[in-house]
Specification:
This protein is of the alpha+beta class and about 120 residues long. Helix content is about 35%, strand content about 15%.
């Protein structure tokens, strides 16, 4: 049984998503290879546009509602940003910076109480 999507299937899935935040998260995960918990733990300064790096050194544990170190030592890594992910990372950083100025927690994908940033769209 295949446990992956072909690139055409992924593009179709992303194109059909109606909620922008979910579309961005799915595209981000597909292009970076990060685990969901690693993406949820990302903060504004973990995405370094100048160096084209995403610094992965923590993960979100939803069972305990905390951010912890990565699963293993080898999970701590820098992920190089290829050209395809840079516009999305710019957008995510800008949105996060705006939320932080308004009192947000500095997380890219999580809200104030470690909730997945929600959209009113369904």
């Amino acid at each position: 049984m295949n446990k992956y999507m072909e690139s055409e299937e992924l593009i179709k899935l992303i194109d059909e998503m109606e909620v922008e935040k979910w579309r961005d998260l799915t595209k981000f995960l597909a292009l970076t290879g990060l685990r969901l918990g690693e993406a949820f733990a990302l903060e504004l300064y973990d995405i370094d546009l100048a160096e084209r790096l995403i610094r992965v050194y923590k993960t979100f544990d939803p069972a305990h509602d905390i951010v912890t170190s990565t699963k293993t030592g080898t999970s701590t890594r820098n992920v190089f940003m290829q050209d395809e992910i840079i516009p999305l990372c710019r957008k995510l950083r800008a949105e996060c910076a705006a939320k932080k100025i308004a009192g947000g927690n500095g997380k890219i994908f999580l809200g104030h109480k470690n909730e997945i940033a929600r959209s009113e769209e369904r």
